[in-house]
Specification:
Layout (H helix, E strand, L loop, with lengths): L2 H14 L2 H26 L3 E5 L4 H14 L4 E3 L4 E5 L3 H11 L20 H20 L5 E9 L15 E8 L7 H14 L8 E5 L14 H35 L4 E10 L3 E8 L6 E13 L24 E12 L3 E8 L3 E12 L7 H12 L8 E7 L4 H58 L5 H6 L9 H11 L1 H13 L1
Parallel strand pairs: 5-6, 12-13
Antiparallel strand pairs: 1-3, 2-3, 4-5, 7-12, 8-11, 9-10
């Protein structure tokens, strides 16, 4: 079929439609065109990604104005707290906003890039304080879990003419944490160290850190105050003791749950820990016998005669034995030096703090299922916690009936909640399936009806037109294809059979 024939056929079909059908067809065509237009727009539209989240209205307005000047398409979501841009332009746009200073916060040491003439000392001091606060803020927001930060510094003013105490430096920090984030003590200590290292004369006890929920985070910081140090040490010792007790309780509870069943026993442990540090130095001998270490011996002996004159120069001259004058002498010397030393070992023992001085354990076993051998329970608990009788450890095991009313109530509520949740899920599932099936049925029925209409229109178009006069002359026989007519025809053809059938019905 050529395009001209197809166009002519469509024109004939259009002229054959009624006015209502033409309106409906026009509306359907317009709807299809509009739908296709929007579908194409959605398909060609770039994917948007969050540029910035959790913005204040003031910051969001400034960023939107900057994006308009940059001619970057954007979207606002989350009630104005989130700004989205095309995914391919997120990082480039973020860098441009950061370089333009539109991301919030003030200027750091960039304030001193432009030198101003005629500044007073007070203006320079304020500028330095603003720059330092902004630099510290930029550093703190890089910490994991910190979303925003505000830093306030108090810097004493120094004077070369007046030698007076102008006060101590102090710092206050307000942190906005990310949702469900809690800073560790090490992170809070790191924030304090950053501030102390950045401001001259700042002491840890003058640093105050809070979050936007009002929680004071600087209570456990390391300070030089002896009272604060003692308090923190006592808190750390109590925390270590409680963690040790919880670990023993967990081990005992887990073991009894495997033996007696879940929720059949309750265990509590109390530990007395020694946090005193002791150092012991001892010296022991490894060689009790006196062994000779070294010996030094000198022996001298001599005999003979000497001759000599009066003292003087002549007497210092050695003469031969044949000279006049004679004398006799004898000399003996013996010197022995012996050193003895005993080998020793010096040992220094440092006992680390936290040793166990005493343990006390209390175990209560449920007797709802019958009596329990408390001695066996005591033996297994003693082995689990490291029982030592020489330390004075104690273990108490008792049988009691547990009150499980609250537990049953909680279990019933949980069961009802689970049942209701499952019922809602089933209803949603069945409703979804039913909706899908109904939609499919409607689509199929509509498709079949449309095909029938199209086929009927094609048949009507193909049937030859009959003149009105011929339709009036020709008589069309009327056929009644109903049950009564069939019964009448059967009665005429087989009256005997009908009579027998009526007799049987009457007898019944």
């Amino acid at each position: 079929m050529t395009p001209a024939e197809l166009l002519a056929r469509l024109k004939e079909r259009w002229q054959a439609l009624t006015q209502t059908q033409k309106i409906i067809a026009t509306l359907v065509t317009v709807g299809i065109v509009v739908s296709l237009f929007f579908i194409v727009q959605l398909a060609l539209r770039p994917a948007y990604a969050p540029l910035l989240t959790g913005l204040d209205p003031k910051d969001a307005g400034a960023i939107v104005e900057e994006l308009k000047s940059m001619k970057v398409p954007y979207e606002i979501a989350d009630q104005g707290k989130t700004i989205k841009v095309p995914e391919a332009q997120v990082y480039e746009t973020r860098i441009q906003l950061a370089s333009s200073g539109a991301l919030g916060g003030g200027m750091g040491f960039e304030l001193f890039d432009q030198s101003k003439f005629g500044q007073t000392d007070f203006e320079q001091q304020v500028g330095y304080q603003r720059a330092l606060q902004e630099e510290l803020r930029r550093t703190l927001v890089q910490i994991e879990g910190v979303e925003q930060a505000r830093v306030h510094l108090v810097i004493p003013q120094k004077s070369v003419f007046v030698n007076t105490d102008q006060g101590n430096a102090s710092a206050s920090v307000a942190l906005k944490l990310k949702p469900a984030v809690r800073l560790k003590d090490e992170q809070v200590q790191g924030v304090c160290d950053i501030l102390v290292g950045s401001l001259e004369g700042l002491k840890p006890e003058n640093v105050h850190i809070i979050d936007t929920e009002g929680n004071v985070l600087s209570d456990n910081l390391n300070t030089s105050d002896p009272k604060a140090v003692m308090t923190r040490t006592a808190q750390d010792q109590q925390k270590a003791q409680r963690e040790y007790e919880k670990e023993l309780e967990r081990r005992v509870q887990q073991m009894l749950a495997r033996i007696l069943g879940q929720d059949k026993a309750v265990a509590m442990v109390t530990a007395d820990l020694d946090f005193n540090q002791q150092q012991t130095t001892s010296t022991t001998s490894t060689n009790p016998q006196n062994l000779k270490l070294s010996e030094h011996s000198i022996k001298e002996s001599g005999s003979g005669s000497e001759t000599g004159g009066a003292p003087g120069t002549d007497s210092n001259v050695t003469t031969t034995p044949f000279m006049e004058g004679s004398g006799s002498s004898s000399y003996t010397k013996e010197e022995i030096e012996t050193n003895y030393q005993v080998s020793t070992v010096q040992e220094t023992i440092v006992n680390a703090p936290g040793s166990v001085r005493r343990l006390s354990a209390s175990v209560v076993v449920s007797e709802a299922d019958g009596p329990v051998d408390t001695q066996k329970v005591k033996d297994v608990v003693a082995a689990a916690i490291g029982f030592d009788q020489s330390r004075g450890d104690q273990i108490n095991v008792s049988n009691m009936v547990f009150d499980d009313t609250y537990q049953k109530k909680v279990e019933d509520e949980m069961t009802q909640a689970e049942t209701a949740a499952k019922l809602r899920e089933n209803i949603i599932t069945y409703a979804t399936i039913g909706g899908i099936i109904l939609a499919v049925i409607l689509v199929v029925v509509g498709f079949i009806a449309m095909r029938r209409r199209i086929a009927q229109r094609v048949d009507d178009d193909e049937q030859p037109l009959i003149p009105l006069k011929e339709m009036e002359v020709e008589e069309v026989p009327v056929y009644r294809d109903d049950k009564q007519q069939k019964v009448r025809d059967m009665a005429k053809e087989k009256p005997e059979d009908i009579a027998e059938l009526l007799k049987v019905w009457i007898k019944e």
